[in-house]
Amino acid sequence: MKSQDIRATFLNFFKSKQHDIVSSAPMVLKNDPTLMFTNSGMAPFKEFFLGNAVPKNNRISDSQKCLRVSGKHNDLEEVGYDTYHHTMFEMLGNWSFGDYFKKEAIAWAWELLTEVYKIDKDILYVTVFEGSDDKDNLSLDTEAYDYWKELISEDRILKGNKKDNFWEMGEQGPCGPCSEIHVDIRSAEEKAAVDGKTLVNMDHPQVVEIWNLVFMQYNRKANGTLEDLPAKHIDTGLGFERLCMVLQGVTSNYDTDVFKPLIREIKTIAATTYGKDEKTDIAIRVIIDHVRAVAFSIADGQLPSNTGAGYVIRRILRRAIRYGFTFLDQKEPFMYRLVDVLSAQMGEAFPELASQKQLIENVIKEEENSFLRTLDNGLVLLDKVIETTKGTIISGSKTFELYDTYGFPLDLTQLIAREKGFTVDENEFSSEMEQQKNRSRAASASETGDWIVLLKDKEEFIGYDHLEATIQLTRYRKVVSKKDGERYQLVFNKTPFYPEGGGQVGDKGYLEVPNGDVVYILDTKKENNVIIHFSKNLPKHLTENLKAVVDQKQRHRTECNHTATHLLHQALREILGTHVEQKGSAVHSKYLRFDFSHFSKVTAEQLQEVEDFVNRRIAGNLPLEEQRDMAMKQAIDEGAVALFGEKYGDTVRAIRFGQSMELCGGTHVKSTGDIWHFKIKYEGAVASGIRRIEAITNDAVKDFYHDNNTAVFEIKKLLNNTKEPVKAVQSLQDENTALKNTLNSC
Ligand code: ATP
Ligand code: MG
Known about the structure:
The protein is α+β, with helices and mostly antiparallel strands. It is 37% helix and 25% strand. It contains 21 helices and 32 strands. It binds adenosine-5'-triphosphate and magnesium ion.
């Protein structure tokens, strides 16, 4: 069975069990403060599990792009060394949100594996949670055990501890026992020699977990205790590449058709072989694994950079480049050449790869070029450091120097050190890093209390139509952080405050309490689909009606910049071409910033054309045409611009000003005339193939012209009120040069 068919069979199976099939959510997350990348199939559905939103169908199935390189799930060190952990992989999953539970989840998993895929029952083992006698005091998951007993002989049901068989979303939130399904794909002789049972969960490369069925039945509270969830959920994750390995009868994920074309390509590029030398093989596996992770991230809009998710991507890429350099003798950029094969192979299932191929190639090549410039010297320095190290611990400050001067991420130095039997003094490295504060943005430790629920009402956003409203507090919690001190997070039954999103900043404003007190709203953000308002204090009487007032001036200026951003986007696609894609956007009250893909310089004439284009549409006073619940398909058919790496639902909000049409959740002016004027202040490159424009509108333009005017006036005054200041300055300069020359010749 080809991998494409394996994926399709999975989805079709769950479709036949009344599941909605949805496409993968982005792998790079934008609005989740607790997570940088999607690291499991359930991450995009967190809001449903937390009860913050209600899914249209309570059965969903999909194949989700996942990345496990940081935080709770970090498989980076395994990748390449073993044959079944990847950084980026696909997780097939089926979900029940308060619908079916253990019985169906277990029966269907079994049916799919043994009857549809026809996997031999004798190579399967399952596990159930054995219970725990710690503070949670949980007993054996007999419910799951009994369902399994009907399907598989009892000597193949193994009991597992909390580490393997109890799943938690985080410190707080939904959790519950799980059942894993493992395969034993060893040869008959090996099986005869060692009982497969003893190898389950023992990191054996041919006795591996393929599917995890999580039964969410508890909620972990902030104080650490468990309570029953009102509605129980199913969350399952089946590793696609591992499933392909089993169904294609091979013993390594890399021998499946998911990876083979990439291996073939790297063998050609590096003129090497696969399967003959362990070091070469590891390098090849690392490289083709990492190129997938990096390419998919770039397609999702995340470019390599020096902070946050961008730095994670840069680290992965540099790690792969070093493997190529050291073990495959690649001294020139080579990884970008794999993108073609990757996109040919995965582009159908993931169109974002195919359509952004050129950008992905450019970005990777540029990164390779810049790292290769310092890699050689860095490696020489590291060799010297290792030579002169007494003992086996490499100094943290030398490691920091490598990081700072040669761009060696810590984990790369650690990796090379390990290859030679050394470790790195991580504490010293960290303290050096700490000293260079601007780089290390260590997440400011914060303590989050439980939500105090006052009202069960759902929350409604009314900020498109209202800037003031009478509202009620439905819940709040206290957050204490080093950075901000004590803050409250407030949630209301309805809110006019726009939460930060789609590049647009969150609203500020205040709440008026009946006794005349005022609570200032410092910022508004969305977290797992809940709009959270930040304040320093609470209203005295929590259950009274409150008058919410949005800071109108700031909102209006922000709207001018947001609408101008759409017009700018349209102008760039008209003038530079439709290859222009939005790659980042920041809409503030004072300015707007827009990053976009474009592969050459933008000339001064083009820039002027862009500015004129936008200003003509402002002068045309085009009205806002907004459609709130448009079917996604219809919007795309009508030419709406959608962004890669954004998560859209079935229905979308479409924003039109004349011929500009975008899917957008932000707020806009009523008609373009409100913007008054648009002025580009900066244009330049951010990365290879990515350019940035910064611009201003409205009052900011007035201030800009006013300041310029004043400056010209002052200059004229200094030049005896000349009518032609440019000429006057020119002649002053000429005179100055002449005087200098005379002086020099004296
Ligand atoms: P393992 O113990 O093998 O690392 P896990 O317990 O971390 O697996 P889960 O978090 O339960 O795995 O994820 C569900 C499924 O996703 C696994 O059963 C496996 O098939 C797949 N999977 C998990 N991590 C990876 C990875 N790094 N690469 C490929 N597939 C993975
Ligand atoms: Mg794991």
